[in-house]
Amino acid sequence: MRQLLKVARMGHPVLRRVADAVDPAQIAHPDFQDFIDSMLDTMIEYEGVGLAAPQVHESVQVVVFHEDAGLLDADGEPLEALINPTITALTEDTSSMWEGCLSIPGLRGKVSRPNRIQVEALDREGRAVSMVLEEFAAVVMQHECDHLLGKLFIDRLDDTRELSYQEEFDRHWVQQAEEDGVYIDQ
């Protein structure tokens, strides 16, 4: 049954645990599909670009994405969910963006991540997916997959002086961040 899920906030142990892999035989089960739909509904309700299962108190390797994340499947359709994803950096070049997180409400921080990555995973039908992502889509993917490793964006800050409450970010940083193209609202 689809439902809005409670979002875990920083400090809850589920966010610091390495998530368990999903058994591919479980993917087609209606309960698992309902879980993915509930994650999508929750992400939309909280206006996120992506959401990882540990953020909704389930320590399993599932991430979902809003169509604004720019992730497309082999048919060019927006990719909703990935299961058991692995990421390989394809460059040492990085993109720095101001990130936020549904599990750390009210804070923003500037993080540098590889700007071109290879992702291998299963989609919500259990089919193998392989894609190369760049720039914004690469950052979103890495942010969400960090949750599967027990990491939060604050663990990857470039400089703790670039950690800000949302209100102060809006007053002092957002205009420059938008002009620089380094703002990601998650």
CATH architectural designation of the domain at 13-93 and 113-153: Alpha-Beta Complex
The strand count comes to 8
Low-confidence stretches: none
* Strand coverage percent: 25-35%
Provide the CATH top-level class of the domain at 13-93 and 113-153: Alpha Beta
* Helix residue percentage: 10-25%
Q: The CATH topology of the domain at 13-93 and 113-153, please?
A: Peptide Deformylase
Q: Order of strands in the sheet with the most strands?
A: 1-2-3-6-7
What is the overall shape?
A: globular
Tell me what you see in this structure.
The protein is α+β, with helices and mostly antiparallel strands. It has a domain at 13-93 and 113-153: Peptide deformylase (Peptide Deformylase, Alpha-Beta Complex), CATH 3.90.45.10. It has helices at 30-45, 135-148, 166-172, 174-180, and strands spanning 50-52, 62-65, 81-89, 94-101, 104-114, 116-122, 128-134, 163-165. The strands form two sheets. The chain has a five-stranded antiparallel beta sheet. A hairpin with a 5-residue loop joins strand 6 (116-122) and strand 7 (128-134). It is globular, with a radius of gyration of 16 Å. The mean pLDDT is 92.
